[in-house]
Hints:
The protein is of the alpha+beta class. It has helices spanning 34-44, 77-91, 130-136, 158-162, 168-173, 208-222, and strands at 3-12, 21-28, 48-54, 62-67, 72-73, 95-99, 105-111, 114-120, 125-126, 142-146, 150-154, 178-184, 190-196, 201-204, 226-231, 237-244, 247-252, 254-264. The protein is built from six helices and 18 strands.
Amino acid sequence: MSRALPYWHVDAFTDRAFGGNQAAVMPLDDWFEDDLLLAIAAENNFAETAFCVRDASGEADWELRWFTPAEEVRLCGHATLASGHVLLARDGGERVRFRTRRAGTLEVARAGAGYELALPLIRTERGEWVEAVQLLGAQPQEVWLHPDGYGVYLFASEDAVRALDPDLRALGALGNDQYICTAPGSDTDVVSRVFVPGASVDEDSFTGSAHAVLTHFWTERLGRGSFTACQASRRGGQAICRRDGERAVLSGHCVTVVEGRFFLP
């Protein structure tokens, strides 16, 4: 006998199917062992699978965890947005709060035809990482780093970011850091590409956590509280990023592509 689990496949930070970043969303009655959660995420083979369990503590509505095909991660924005999209569509309401193990309490709220996702603001500091820079394929103007593995690499133009051809295998060998390559955009205020090969995500389609980094980086640089952003991956993704105190608020859309059942042996 097999057990059927509810399953949604959502494209996040896009208003069209086959764009943005894919996430599997799977609400559970209780937590499984970590090895089984990882096996399910590997079977889904998306950048992230989000697992939700009702929060018995009363601190939030749901507990939330995220897994790549290779590991659990400390923060994932696009799968949080996708989870909010699924649960608000299924259960109703205007907002949903998630308690996480390493990123605090996160919230997804309805905003017009889309949603707002509130994440912790992530601050980087000016630094150097010669080994990583040598593998990006071009020399950035500046490097900004965070000890949790977020790195911002600033380039002069959108064309320079789009032309990057990094050595992904060698970057992955340095660890599971995010390499956030960014520049002023042409059609949006900011453009980026994000590489996370150490976590089995060579190039991410749209990275919410990277935009929690970019929200601090670019609002400081632009001298204003919000900006439009495009992640220039093959699938593409868009958001409006706004700084609200110590939170990065990302506005975006989601599209459900598949709703069904995952059969667990």
